[in-house]
Amino acid sequence: MNTPRYSIQTAARLCGLTPYVLRAWEKRYNVVDPLRTPTNRRLYTDADVERLGMLRKLTESGLAISSVAALPDAELRVLLRKMDDRVSDAEMRVKDYAGWRAALMRHAQQLDAAGLETTLREAEKELSRHAFIDHVVGPFVADIGSGWREGRVRIVQEHLATTAVRGVLVDLLNAAAVPADAERVVSATPTGQRHELGVLLAALAASTAGRAVTHLGTDLPAAEIALAARDLGAAEVLISIVYPPDDADTFAELVELVRLLPPDTRIIVGGASAPTYAAHIDHPSIIHLQSTSELWEHYATVP
User: Fold this and answer.
1) At what angle do helices 155-175 and 97-109 cross, to 10 degrees?
2) Entry pTM
């Protein structure tokens, strides 16, 4: 079990991480100490892989890597057992994410606001926060948007669903309990961007990862976002840009945001049109993330 034999690629695959996250955890938290060959290749043991797998499961449950990285394996196993004990038999059986999304879509089509909210809150209680965001709400929001564009969802149905989802996400964000010394994050959309659900999902993911999030809202000038971030001492700003992909004013707002923020403030840019803008702003503070999965990975590597 303690014979070094796995390359970093194999170890990462076995424990469910990416090599990027594995290296970051080693560098920042010294979670394992792999053998180094004469050619400086890392080699991992079965014990290393087991430990990394436990850390992955704990961080996926919502714990910050910084809070568990130094714990011995025995304590990690205890935490995992406690986590498993909190999971009911019903939750273990609930893996039909499509069923949750179908129920939400049915309520939206029937203009059943109460049903939408009840189903969202039941899903949040039944599932892990990761699954709730990645497999239920995120895809449902995308389904509603594509349905509206394709004529399968009426405008009023889309508005009703958006209102219900926004209400639940804001409630969850406001109810989050984070440490007093947690890293500060602000979330918003820039001037002209009124689609809010994507950045709210990102904000909830940041909160789940242990950040203290202040959501500022939509359609805000870069100067106001930057001023709020400075006032709050934010280390990170979450921005969503959905449409259009080539608006000169939106580009100018993003450039202005970079100029006004301290150089060490990270600007996470997401949304359907984000790639175009991020690709044309070559600045180290801009980080383009394409999905909540990438956002989870980002928070797994940032202290």
Assistant:
1) 130
2) 0.72
